Amino acid sequence: MRARSKPIRFRDALHVRSAEFWLKLGKPYLALLELQHLPDATQAHPWATVVWRQAVRSVRQAQQEN
User: Would you say the pTM of this structure is higher than 0.70?
Assistant: First the structure.
């Protein structure tokens, strides 16, 4: 059984949500910029980590296409 993660502050959740929207718009660099605004503790949150990985994967894919 996994331990529950702490809730994210509203301000930090807005950054993660904004990063998700940037990814949907095809702007992974802007998604990464949003995630850089998070404090270190929040960057380690599972939700933020998933979005971070998606953004990095999108950036790498875009680099390979060029």
Answer: yes
* pLDDT tops 80 at residue 5: no
Asked if 23 and 54 touch (Cβ cutoff 8 Å), the reply is yes
Give the Cβ contact number of residue 66 at 10 Å: 4
Tell me, rounded to whole angstroms, the distance of Cα 64 from its chain centroid.
21
DSSP code string of the chain = -PPPPPPPPHHHHHHHHHHHHHHHTT-HHHHHHHHHTS-HHHHTSHHHHHHHHHHHHHHHHHHHH-
How far is it, in rounded angstroms, from Cα 30 to Cα 21? 10
Q: How far apart are the first and last CA of the chain?
A: 43
